[in-house]
Amino acid sequence: MAARLGHRRGARLGPGPYRDRVYALAGLLRARLAAIPGCQVRDQGTEQCGIVTFTVDGVPADEIKDRLAGRSINVSVSRAPSTLLDMTDRGLASVVRASVHYYNTEEEMDRLLEELAD
């Protein structure tokens, strides 16, 4: 029932407000990640969505994922075989992928950023 009501509300509002929130949160996350020494935001393109990819100098992506998981912060790792041409051209073996959703909060992003800054 709640799912149906949620879908009805979404249909009434349209995708715009949700997209706008996701894009705003992801943009904030990108800017704050870029301010962390050694952290490189790896996203490209003129329109960037809610998928935020990054690396941290000298720290394997899997190690970052595991460390964050230990703090109940969910991210994933994208590896070169999944985007072979792009990542090969950029010399990347893997990246950390944070998928921002409309229900995420700035406080949740703060937790992720605090963990990375330590």
Describe this structure in words.
This protein has 118 residues and is of the alpha+beta class. It has one domain: Aspartate Aminotransferase, domain 1, CATH 3.90.1150. It has helices at 2-13, 16-34, 61-69, 84-90, 106-117, and strands at 39-41, 51-56, 76-79, 94-99. The longest helix is centred in the N-terminal third of the chain and has 19 residues, at 16-34.
Sheet bearing the most strands, described? 4 strands, antiparallel
Low-confidence stretches: 1-5
The largest beta-sheet arranges its strands as 1-2-4-3
How far do the termini sit from each other? 43 Å
Q: Please report the number of helical segments.
A: 5
Within the CATH hierarchy, at the fold level, what is the topology? Aspartate Aminotransferase, domain 1
Secondary structure tally: strands: 4
Query: What string gives the helices and strands in order?
Result: HHEEHEHEH
- Please, how many domains? 1
CATH class category name: Alpha Beta
Percent of residues in beta strands? 15-25%
Tell me the Rg in angstroms.
16 Å
- Range of helix content: 40-55%
- Please state the average pLDDT score: 88
Structural class: alpha+beta
Per CATH, the superfamily is: Aspartate Aminotransferase, domain 1
CATH architecture: Alpha-Beta Complex
Approximate shape: globular
